[in-house]
């Protein structure tokens, strides 16, 4: 009987806290990797233990700054050149995913470029969560395990025992996600329709559906400046909603997002730890993805089915 060697788990510096939680849930310590920094800002990762013939999990969300992406690429290349047998890039938040198509002339398809870079570096498998667009999986020529935060969010919502529950999407693009949540919870659905002047700036927003006397939950894959989310929450309350909460997988929270959330009608924002929070907030609750990712990583390593991990 063939003995499968233990997998090894390493992390970039930007995702170290999350990687440590995942490794603990997996049942083994994080592998040792050091980063040598040069005076001009260049850096070089070095695995301080052998990875020859092993499956290597490299954990790094690719949120800003760009160092998180570059560190992941360098670690992949180092593992490849050190003769790792399998290199799985664990990317809880896949950055640049909003550039998944040409929406006007003379612009890049950034998500495809990132996929090509990760594949060219030597990754043999990708593991990620709540891609901004499902079709990004097709940008890779290697297997992609696309996990969903709904398997964490749905039980959390059910534990609230909210009456007159309505699920809302903050924009038309999230209508499929909102409908899936509503179907799983036996709730109604409303859609917020927004018109933009430019990126991160909303010109007009209207609600499609009735929210009067309803407890509304907004669902989305990410919250960046929080402009759309907070405007939607305020509008839903103006339309007669009893309360408004939000569940968003990736807490980018850039600019004055924290201030917007604190001053909005949102009673609570529930996020995951795919990206570390810049600071705590009484209105923000974090649910960890560590157990989920550790479970799927272990199943992948031992060649077990992971189909039961895909909900919505």
From TrEMBL:
One of its GO terms (cellular component) is cytoplasm. Its EC number is 2.7.6.1. It catalyses: D-ribose 5-phosphate + ATP = 5-phospho-alpha-D-ribose 1-diphosphate + AMP + H(+). The keyword ATP-binding applies. It is an enzyme of class 2 (transferase). Keywords: ATP-binding, Kinase, Magnesium, Metal-binding, Nucleotide biosynthesis, Nucleotide-binding, Transferase. NCBIfam families: PRK01259.1 (NF002320), ribP_PPkin (TIGR01251). This is ribose-phosphate diphosphokinase. The gene is prsA.
């Amino acid at each position: 009987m063939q003995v499968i060697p233990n997998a090894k788990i390493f992390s970039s510096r930007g995702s170290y806290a999350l990687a440590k939680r995942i490794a603990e849930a997996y049942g083994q310590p994080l592998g040792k990797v050091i980063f040598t920094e040069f005076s001009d800002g260049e850096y070089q990762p070095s695995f301080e233990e052998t990875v020859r013939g092993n499956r290597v999990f490299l954990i790094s969300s690719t949120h800003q700054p760009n160092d998180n992406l570059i560190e992941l690429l360098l670690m992949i290349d180092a593992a490849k050149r050190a003769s790792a047998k399998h290199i799985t890039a664990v990317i809880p938040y896949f950055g640049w995913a909003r550039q998944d198509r040409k929406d006007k002339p003379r612009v890049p398809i950034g998500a495809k470029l990132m996929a090509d870079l990760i594949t060219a570096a030597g990754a043999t498998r990708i593991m990620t969560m709540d891609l901004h667009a499902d079709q990004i999986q097709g940008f890779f020529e290697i297997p992609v395990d696309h996990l969903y935060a709904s398997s964490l969010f749905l039980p959390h919502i059910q534990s609230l025992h909210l009456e007159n529950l309505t699920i809302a999407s903050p924009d038309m693009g999230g209508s499929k996600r909102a409908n899936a949540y509503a179907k799983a919870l036996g709730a109604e659905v409303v859609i917020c329709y927004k018109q933009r002047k430019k990126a991160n700036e909303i010109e007009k927003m209207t609600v499609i559906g009735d929210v009067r006397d309803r407890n509304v939950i907004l669902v989305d894959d990410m919250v960046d400046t929080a402009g759309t989310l907070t405007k939607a929450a305020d509008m839903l309350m103006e339309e007669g909603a009893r309360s408004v909460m939000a569940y968003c997988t990736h807490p980018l929270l850039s600019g004055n997002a924290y201030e917007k959330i604190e001053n909005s009608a949102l009673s609570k924002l529930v996020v995951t730890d795919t990206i570390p929070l810049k600071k705590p907030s009484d209105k923000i609750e974090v649910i960890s993805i560590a157990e989920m990712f550790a479970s799927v990583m272990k199943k992948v390593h031992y060649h077990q089915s992971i189909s039961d991990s895909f909900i919505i």
